[in-house]
Amino acid sequence: MVKNKVKETRCAQGITQEKLAEAVGVSRQTIISLEKGNYVPSVSLAIKIARYFKTSVEHLF
């Protein structure tokens, strides 16, 4: 299980899982797995998510 702050950050900004998934080019199921810590994103996906939230990869993961 990998700890991350994706769900915390997403909820704080009022973004849905579906909107985040669409913005970074993955399925909603991928976002769900990521938030639960069951999925480790690729470096490129981690960067896309960090850019979407205008934060660093280190902050999120």
Distance between the termini: 12 Å
Reported CATH architecture: Orthogonal Bundle
Quote the average pLDDT: 96
Computed Rg: 10 Å
Helix proportion: 55-70%
Determine and state the CATH class. Mainly Alpha
Q: Structural class of the helix and strand makeup?
A: mainly alpha
| Number of individual domains | 1
Largest β sheet strand count, sense and barrel closure: none
CATH topology: 434 Repressor (Amino-terminal Domain)
**How many strands?**
0
Number of helices: 5
Proportion of beta-strand residues? under 5%
What is the H/E string?
HHHHH
What is the oligomeric state here? Answer: single chain
Shape, per Cα inertia axes: globular
Q: Provide the CATH superfamily.
A: lambda repressor-like DNA-binding domains
Q: Which regions have little confidence, pLDDT < 50, spanning 5+ residues?
A: none
In short:
The chain has 61 residues and is mainly α. It has helices at 6-12, 17-24, 28-36, 43-52, 57-60.
